[in-house]
Amino acid sequence: xxxxxxxxxxxxxxxxxxxxxxxxxxxxxxxxxxxxxxxxxxxxxxxxxxxxxxxxxxxxxxxxxxxxxxxxxxxxxxxxxxxxxxxxxxxxxxxxxxxxxxxxxxxxxxxxxxxxxxxxxxxxxxxxxxxxxxxxxxxxxxxxxxxxxxxxxxxxxxxxxxxxxxxxxxxxxxxxxxxxxxxxxxxxxxxxxxxxxxxxxxxxxxxxxxxxxxxxxxxxxxxxxxxxxxxxxxxxxxxxxxxxxxxxxxxxxxxxxxxxxxxxxxxxxxxxxxxxxxxxxxxxxxxxxxxxxxxxxxxxxxxxxxxxxxxxxxxxxxxxxxxxxxxxxxxxxxxxxxxxxxxxxxxxxxxxxxxxxxxxxxxxxxxxxxxxxxxxxxxxxxxxxxxxxxxxxxxxxxxxxxxxxxxxxxxxxxxxxxxxxxxxxxxxxxxxxxxxxxxxxxxxxxxxxxxxxxxxxxxxxxxxxxxxxxxxxxxxxxxxxxxxxxxxxxxxxxxxxxxxxxxxxxxxxxxxxxxxxxxxxxxxxxxxxxxxxxxxxxxxxxxxxxxxxxxxxxxxxxxxxxxxxxxxxxxxxxxxxxxxxxxxxxxxxxxxxxxxxxxxxxxxxxxxxxxxxxxxxxxxxxxxxxxxxxxxxxxxxxxxxxxxxxxxxxxxxxxxxxxxxxxxxxxxxxxxxxxxxxxxxxxxxxxxxxxxxxxxxxxxxxxxxxxxxxxxxxxxxxxxxxxxxxxxxxxxxxxxxxxxxxxxxxxxxxxxxxxxxxxxxxxxxxxxxxxxxxxxxxxxxxxxxxxxxxxxxxxxxxxxxxxxxxxxxxxxxxxxxxxxxxxxxxxxxxxxxxxxxxxxxxxxxxxxxxxxxxxxxxxxxxxxxxxxxxxxxxxxxxxxxxxxxxxxxxxxxxxxxxxxxxxxxxxxxxxxxxxxxxxxxxxxxxxxxxxxxxxxxxxxxxxxxxxxxxxxxxxxxxxxxxxxxxxxxxxxxxxxxxxxxxxxxxxxxxxxxxxxxxxxxxxxxxxxxxxxxxxxxxxxxxxxxxxxxxxxxxxxxxxxxxxxxxxxxxxxxxxxxxxxxxxxxxxxxxxxxxxxxxxxxxxxxxxxxxxxxxxxxxxxxxxxxxxxxxxxxxxxxxxxxxxxxxxxxxxxxxxxxxxxxxxxxxxxxxxxxxxxxxxxxxxxxxxxxxxxxxxxxxxxxxxxxxxxxxxxxxxxxxxxxxxxxxxxxxxxxxxxxxxxxxxxxxxx
Length: 1228
Hints:
Elements: H1 17-22, H2 35-45, E1 48-49, E2 52-53, H3 57-69, H4 79-94, E3 98-100, H5 102-107, E4 119-122, H6 128-143, E5 147-151, H7 172-185, E6 187-188, E7 192-193, E8 196-201, H8 207-211, E9 222-228, H9 230-238, E10 241-245, E11 252-257, H10 258-272, E12 276-279, H11 280-284, E13 304-305, E14 309-312, E15 315-318, H12 319-326, E16 332-334, E17 345-347, E18 352-354, E19 362-364, E20 367-381, E21 386-389, E22 394-397, E23 400-403, E24 413-415, E25 436-438, E26 444-446, H13 455-467, E27 468-471, E28 478-483, H14 488-502, E29 509-510, E30 516-521, H15 523-532, H16 553-567, E31 568-571, E32 580-585, H17 588-600, E33 606-609, E34 615-624, E35 627-633, E36 638-642, H18 646-653, H19 659-666, E37 678-696, E38 702-705, E39 708-711, E40 723-730, H20 751-771, H21 777-786, E41 789-794, H22 796-803, H23 810-838, H24 867-873, E42 886-891, E43 894-899, H25 901-910, H26 915-924, H27 935-940, H28 949-960, E44 970-973, H29 979-991, E45 996-1001, E46 1010-1012, E47 1065-1073, E48 1076-1084, E49 1090-1096, H30 1103-1120, H31 1127-1138, ...
Parallel strand pairs: 4-5, 5-8, 8-9, 9-12, 40-41, 44-45
Antiparallel strand pairs: 1-2, 3-40, 4-40, 6-7, 10-11, 12-45, 13-37, 14-15, 16-19, 17-18, 20-21, 20-37, 22-23, 24-37, 25-26, 27-28, 28-30, 29-30, 31-32, 32-36, 33-36, 34-35, 38-39, 42-43, 46-50, 47-48, 48-49, 51-52
Pfam families: LAGLIDADG_3 (PF14528), Ribonuc_red_lgC (PF02867), Ribonuc_red_lgN (PF00317), TSCPD (PF12637)
Organism: Candidatus Methylomirabilis tolerans
GO molecular function: ATP binding; cobalamin binding; endonuclease activity; ribonucleoside-diphosphate reductase activity, thioredoxin disulfide as acceptor
């Protein structure tokens, strides 16, 4: 390690002009910036003073490069070396090959104290103090330019009792609104707005209220997603109910039908675009959570207790010991071949081999971890199997996966281990053996104790546990064995073995009724058996010695054979073929241990309660001078019984010793019924708070625990107070135009250049961590422990266009996975090399990467929203397809047309370019079906809304396979999409392995959208009113029939539109709206009645100004038309129609709430006619209106919504976020 310096010294490093001077002059290289890029940079990124921008884009890049490269000096790099690193950072930014997330570009080197990260995760604890502490922290983060994610699943449900106050809980949705309001109030230095993600688990009792919480338009600063568990998804597929779990008590409080909840999610998403879905179990079993041992648990997790026995390729391990020894993998766990057998494959280096080919069922784990302390329940079955776990831990039943809390007593049959398992193959005993001891008296004692397992050692332990005793703690330490009159053959076999171990022969002592005792005195001899796990306890507390569970099979068989011979029998039943093998004991725990050993040998058994009332004086013990002592019984007795085909397996593989084996051989069966390796649930009972554990087995996502086939999810959420530094590589820069188009696709990509930029970007993002002025101490500490970075991509669609590959094709999907896999591989290698020089992230030794080459960063790759940075470098957003081939808008008195430069270049190169064609492309926004554009070009230049949803999902899944963290992607749907289309997208995302999904249906946000290519099919004369076909034009309200005009009746004058007087009096209102400041004027006629309305907002010539003028003209026309209603009555009807129309960005609170421009006009008109006092109107209900369909058939393609900043129709929804292609406005 070179130049290691304390992490804390990195923060508060001097920034600014002096640092730039230390690094020397700015490099001469300059960039190429489009008009849109310059507008975005000038308004949001460049340093400014009172007169405007005071730096160029190149100076900005150098400022950022120097600020970040200063971290290099802390690792022993010289000034010259640090300058070289700064130049490499500068080069990739100014050339548009890589850019970090916006906060880094905006703040690095400005000395404004604002941090450089884009995303943070904050905990929301279930207390008033915890909730408002999170509100405060979120406000601080938003003020410094970051966005926040919250999991509200910890908060107790609405209306539950709060014991500390005696009141009722408000529930998570009420507090979600508090967070929303706080975000609205915070301004981020005029450059970025607070953005939030809110998540609630699908099993939270308030989930239905959460799903619907955005329907009223009141929550505008949150995207929301439902955290769907695998339990929920399984119930959805099976059309079953699932349990709702109170996060405070951890108890199941009710059940919902999964299909109905999913339908509710889909309907809300169809109407508003929210909620999305995140597949929480899958997320937390992925590399997105690389430090499961240390991260706090954010929500209820499926886990089991530490004393549960898990069959592995090293025997049966206690779960807590498995975690302690194999936390980072290195062991394989038993899985059941009945689980999707086609998917259970083992990789043999060149090919997959079915698991069944091995004759057993063990698959390797990737990690095991403690999940903290949780409320638990104990599941018991009729046959005596039991497991203590969290209520949401899932069991495989004969009807599929079912959570513990949802098991149906007396009905559900849980699968138990259905195939023989594996025992340890290491014969060595698990502790060192010493055979020469020196006592306190100085005397030397010598034994010949075994150092390895054997059948004989197993026999000795079995007889000792069954009919022996161990005395320890006083001078008469002793190991003793009891043999009945029929057990002399066993005594003759065991005594020579014990005598050899002891070092000398010991005499057998005869007792009454033919009983004989064999005992060995000595502390060291006793200690040997204690080390093996034999306890000096009463009969009801006996257990299987713990070391037996990890002993070789031969020793285990010896133990069982001796134990069954000592305390077992063959039970005769007069009914034909109904005898069974039994083992009796006062200890249920001993029988449970035996049951699991038998099950690992493929033998199923049941534990029966044979207890009866207590009795005294049953039989004489021995005679004393005072009389004969007798034994009684407390009546407690349990029996382990082996039935069916397992009887024959027991006979063949274990059997008895001596006379009992002969009796077993003499039993004749005509056949054996086939046993069901499943058992009926009889109890699910609360078991209090216990420390719980889980593991990750990535192929079947299952294991066996205490005999049950159970699911494992490895669920671990992202740690609270953590943050991630993001950046994106522009893939469009790595197309090689000099390579012939008929060459292989891989040959046309600059892999060498791509590798170089990835290595530079990883160093850049790691350096950001060391110079970032984080806003909170807790965040600083958490970030430095994990050092998460997120390197992603942008320009993917542009690269496909250059290569001539349609976005919606298998070739594009395969290439996406290949390129992202390359970036991830090189990124991890770069992180490994940084770790060699600077050390791994502090939690590496406890991470899933322990045992591999150390990494500098817990996570390396993330595909995040690229928003404005893709505009700066002039490429497509993230992994999204292009939203239009061309679009146009008016800026001032200029009509600007933007044509995709790749399309324009291809058109010129192939000879079909013309100004008229470009105009028609801009008019339509698409080239599909456009005459003059070759078919192959039409196929490649497909736009987002022309792509079938399935291809959006396939592309997201392809990139997700090669990404450590999440993938930001929007599944764009046309306005005509149905709820069924959204349901299919959600289910497909789950099936293909996505971690989450966000959908956006055109028009679903309730804002009137603007379309291109909506020209009428024929000219309309001034007096004609064209009929609107279904779906055309604006969303229609109830429209009265047209008023007739009848010549010669004398009513012509009455029915004419009232002319406007030359002069009128009126009043002008100023109103703040989401589209800017509006000036709304209401003029009245000579009778004092409202006569006309003018609404002015936005720049002259902008679409915003046009829309506001149109609304005013329509209202004025309504007021001037003849009608039996008075003007004031008509205004009241207009207010009723316009009030509460919701837009994307409502503003204000309570009485000052303004949801949209129409809503603002309604409030002014309401005030004018006296429906409300000035400033007191509050609209409570929001209407959800779909966007219009275009009038041009297939030629109508959505260009974008109106941007709240510039008012142009170029606001699109991509990567789960809104962004304007004209001015660069972004909500992310």
